[in-house]
Amino acid sequence: MKSKLIDVRDDMEIKAKGKEEVFETVDEQGVKFVGLWFTDILGRLKCVTISVSELEAAFDEGMGFDGSSIKGFARIDESDMLAKPDPATFKIVPWIAKEDAVARMFCDILEPDGTPYMGDPRYILKRNLAKLKEEYGYTFYIGPELEYFYFNSDKKPEIMDEGGYFDLTTLDAGSDLRRDAVLTLEEMGINVEASHHEVAPSQHEIDLRYKDALTMADKVMTSRIVIKEIAQQQGCYASFMPKPLFGMNGSGMHVHQSLFKGDRNAFFDQDAEHQISDFAKGYIAGLLRHAPEITSITNQWINSYKRLVPGYEAPAYITWARRNRSTLVRVPMYKPGKEKATRVEYRSPDPACNPYLAFSVMLAAGLAGMKNKYELPPPTEKDVYIMSADEREKDGISVLPGSLIEAITLTEKSELVREALGDHVFENFITSKKVEWDRYRVNISEWELKEYLSVL
Fold this sequence. Notes:
alpha+beta; ten-stranded mixed beta sheet
């Protein structure tokens, strides 16, 4: 099914009114270079740096580049692309000396004729958000919790502390790193609600204050590079690898989400049980039903599935609850009865995903549940991890995919994901993941050598 091409350029033109402010800031701060940022389909950040003398041309025409060299973009015979900066995303890069002031902007990728490029993950999210606004008038808000590790190097996961959840002791060797990262994020206009040591040794979490989904996807990409940069400056390494340590908790990105029309929260109903609206119940049911087929997008790496196993606080079973953290979907009860705080938390994604694509498929799954009036099963308020297989079967609790290839096989059959991502990204993403799986399955691991070499 081919995706409808929704023109989001009107929104781009509205934001383009900020060009004057960009040039004012460039003059005031003595900016000499501007990095134009965008991502490939796997969510890896790309950058081309221009001098400020080229900024006007970049705004008006975009900067040309070879799309065939970017993962999942274009074939060599159709490789000419344009990166057009979004002035609303202009920020000074604070970790570079002021005398060499550098700024950055996120870009929309365009075809040579100026139309949006269907392989651009940022456009994919913009298209889904435009469709949401067009059909329902809603704005999609996201508040992610980013978990990650600090290690002594990028060669081996050597932990820097033996701290645990919320520890405030000398065990938390990363507290200064985390504080400096938060201060840098704030300098770049990224509001942080909280930060703390997480459960595993050397594991940390930074929670971002909710924003609209497009702004938040940009902020997630920025946060990952900021956290890594601050760590590197201090001679260590920050990793968003989902499961770097055997026998320890992995890193997730719990995604809090809500839909608003003006000041009204579509998930809130004052008169309903627990103040959860029928709309929210349908949305949760959609996330649950479509979870298996969207998991390859929210958990896109081989290593992601080492985290999604029972016993380490990551969701492995497809259930929902209000307080139970062993479930896939949770409706947080921190502030009962408060409309703006009513939200749905989807707990399986990890921080190494492509946020533009992950936010798109979660929205599509939730809306499908609402639109088609899926029935929401009863909540599971007991620990799913200690339930027997018979108990789970009796309660109709199924399991998330156990490996990347299993997840990709389910995604490949999904019309919902194809529609959300568009044919180009859908097909290129699946092809890329199959290649990754083939490379993995022919590799001989250290575990296999220890397990088999001396006994077979």
